Amino acid sequence: MLEKRSPISVGEAVRRVMNYNIIGQTEYIPINQAYGRYLSEDLIATSDVPHFDRAPYDGFAIRSVDSQMASQINPITFEVIDEIGAGMVTTKKLAAFQAVRIMTGAMMPEGADTVVMLELAKDSKENEKSFMTVKRPFRKGDNVSFTGEDAKEGEVLVKKGAFINPGIQAMLATFGYAEVPVAKKPRIGLFATGTELLDVGDSLVPGKIRNSNSYMIAAQIMRIGGEVVYFGKLLDDFNACYEAIKASLEKVDILLTTGGVSVGDYDYLPAIYEKLGAEVLFNKVGMRPGSVTTVAQLHGKLLFGLSGNPSACYVGFELFVRPIVRGMLFSSQPHLSKEESILEVDFPKANPFMRFVRSYAYIENGQMKVVPSGLDKSNIVMSLAGANSLMILPGGTRGFMKGTKVEVLLLEDHTGSEWPW
Ligand SMILES: Nc1nc2c(c(=O)[nH]1)N[C@H]1C(S)=C(S)[C@@H](COP(=O)(O)OP(=O)(O)OC[C@H]3O[C@@H](n4cnc5c(N)ncnc54)[C@H](O)[C@@H]3O)O[C@H]1N2
Ligand code: MOO
Ligand SMILES: [Mg+2]
Question: Which CATH class for the 59-134 domain?
Answer without folding.
Answer: mainly beta
